[in-house]
Amino acid sequence: MAENPMQHRVLIADDEAPARRELKRLLSVDPSLVVVGEAQNGLDAFTQAMAQRPDIVFLDIQMPALTGIETAEQFLANHYYPLIVFVTAYDAYAVKAFELHAIDYILKPVRKERLDMVLKRIHMQLDDAHPQDGQERLLRLISSLQEGRQPCRIALYQGDKIIPIRIDEIIYAEASGRCCKVMTKDGLFSTAYSMHELQEILPSSRFFPCHRSYLVNLDCIESVQLWVNSTYRLKMTGSDTLVPVSRSSTAALKQFLHLL
Fold this sequence. Notes:
The protein is α/β, with parallel strands linked by helices. It folds into two domains: 139 residues, Rossmann fold, CATH 3.40.50.2300; 105 residues, CATH 2.40.50.1020. Helices cover 34% and strands 31% of the residues. The chain is built from eight helices and 15 strands. The strands form four sheets. Strands 2-1-3-4-5 form a five-stranded parallel β-sheet, with helices on both faces. Strands 10-9-8-12-11 form a five-stranded antiparallel β-sheet. Strand 8 and strand 9 form a beta hairpin. Helix 2 runs parallel beside helix 3. It is elongated. The N and C termini lie far apart (71 Å).
C-alpha cells in the first residue's frame, strides 16, 4: 500500500515480537501514522532508521546489541533527530530522567490511554516550528543518563556493516579527515565521530590523547620507544603501527605510565 504523504513514518524497536505486534496494532488506528519498519534489537533499529529515516521511533530501553539509550546516542552522533518515544518496564531512575527532561516514554504493558496522550504531544511537536527544542531535550537526557555510567559498546562501521564493538576491544583511534578510524582487536573500523567527540565518549581513565590525531587505550600499550626531541612512539598490542606522542603530551604520558 502506498504511503500517504501526509502520514508520519514510524519505526518500532523491541526485542519482544508480541510487544512489537501490540504496539503496531494500537498505532494502526491513527490514520496519520504508518509503521515502516520493525526492529528486534538496537543495532537493527539503527540500521533501519538510517535507511528509512522515520519521523518517529519507539525504542525499547532494554534491547540486545544496543540499548534504547545507546541507539538514541547513535542517532545524535549521526546528526539524525527523529522524535523518540522510549518504551520501558518500570525503571524509577530512567522514568525520573524522562520526566525531568520532558521526554516522551511509555511503560510496559502499553496502555491505549497513555499512548494516546503521548501521540497527542508528538503531533504537536511535529507541527512545532522549533523542532530543535526536542533535540536539545534529548541531548540533555542522554547526558543525564550518562552521568556515572561509562558506555560499554560503540557502533562502528566496517564496509556496509554497522558493528557494536566493546570499548575494551579498542586499541587506538586515528583522525581521518573530520572522522576517525578505530583499530580494534578484530581489525580496522571507521566511525562518524570526530576525534573530539570520541574523546567525550570513551573513558578518560583508559583512553589517552597522546597526539592531536591519536587516542590510545593505555591497557594496549605493548612498549614505549624513545624518539626524536625527547618524545616517544607507542607500540600497540596487535598492531604494527607506531603511534607518535606529541611533545605536549609526553609529560602526561609519563605520569600515566609512571615513567621516570
